Amino acid sequence: MSLARVVVTAQSNGALEMLQRRVGGILKGLAHVSKIYPDQYQIGKVNPDLVVAYAKGLRVEEIKSWYPGKPFIAVELVIHSTGIRSIKQIAEDKIIGIVAKHRRCANYFLEEITKSISLNNRLVTGCFDDVNKSISADVYLISGEMEEDTKNRALRVIPSHKLVMVSRTISPYSAAELINVTYEINREKKERGFVGYRRAVEA
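Above: the chain's sequence. Below: its structure in token form.
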């Protein structure tokens, strides 16, 4: 039986690598998981059984439109257990800055953090250009899957001793959805293969 062909896509290299790694682990033995950059998409060149993207990605609706009629899962992310431990080690009297490349991404990152962790700290959000201008904090959190050049950009405005890299992972709900949809795809592929085999025998 041929396994489901799953394609993951994301806007940045770091997020794409993270998604491929996480989705590949969840669907190990159930699917072939490959990656594609949004700007490398070409109609007719990719024919996946399932497309996976980050639910809060800047281009998620555009990506979905590339694959009309195809199953599409926009996965939610939560803070990885290692990230939770790192954040909980920050003293409660410290101001925590949550920063990203774009303010919208920083706000989504804040949402993921507050869903995963109960904090009494004062929290501020912004993009890298806001650091030391409109926002100031004792400790800054950035997403662990950022591209290397973005991390370097963060280090230009934030001292390394104030920077905490926070890893994320796919939420249990999204993981369950990935597994359920992939099982259904494989079941349908198996049934189509059996029907084709019967027709060939009967011919």
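The radius of gyration is 20 Å.
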